What does this fold into?
Amino acid sequence: MKLAVLGMLSALGQAGFAKCIPRPESSSYAVETPSSDYAVETPSSDYSAVVPSSDAAPSSDYPVASPSSDYSEAAPSSDYSEVDASSDVVSSSDNSEVASSSDYSEAASSSAPEPSSPAETGAAGAYQITESQLDAAVPGGAGQGKCTDSADTSCANNKRAVAALNAAAQKYGITERSEMVAVVALMAFESGSWQYNVNLYPGRPGQGTKAMLMYDFVYAYAKQLYPSQVQDAWQSSTDTDTMNNVRALVLGDDDSFGAGFWYLTTKAAEYHNSGKLKDGDLASFQDYCTSAVGASWDSERQAVWETVNGRLV
It folds into this structure.
């Protein structure tokens, strides 16, 4: 009898402990397991898994998901409430841990210096969106958004976001609705509806922007925009201050919101103006996330895309 009881206790102990073991990190996204409102997972590739920089704990507007890869790891919660999914995709995302709540219900500043060398010259006919469209697409950013602390300039609402998103679409030549939807959905998911700008959990040095890029991409982005301010030797730096200082160059609204467009057009250029991101097609967005960004797929990421896709019309 004693042996049987001991065996049961041992099995229970192992089951509880397993949930605390961090999942192995894959590729560029680093993911962790947050507590409470944050759901954290193991990131995968180029975009990092991340939770931005405010010390405030995220609320509960996003359903908790796991960060992915190239994009960081903010996990939405239920701002994007379950929408009718157009496909039975099983996801495992690597996105991080931003918790939201139910802003997304039933739906199918900055101080950075002026860039010395623009990445793109801009394009006529760039896809543009309105604030009211963005309020419907990213409900967690409507009104004051998640910005409850006026001193936290890293958090943005949709009014700030729409100006930066439209400027980035112009700068990087985004003329297709499918590309705007894909980038907005990715960044809204990664940043917790624009709440975060840097990785908070586990606090990876150099990881940030609304796309939650890992440091190697942050470095490449900053080097392209501010070549005279970014030294070549910093590319392989492991010094926390150096990495965070490089990141600080691209945390202004235009650069931070522009990061997802930069990644699409420079690091995943085969998806830009090629027809690989098909309008209204969940499967092609999933392919972009898993193949180009290196993110794991899950129902929360799908719900965010479905909400954005259904509202940016």
User: Anything to note?
Assistant: The chain is about 35% helix and 0% strand.
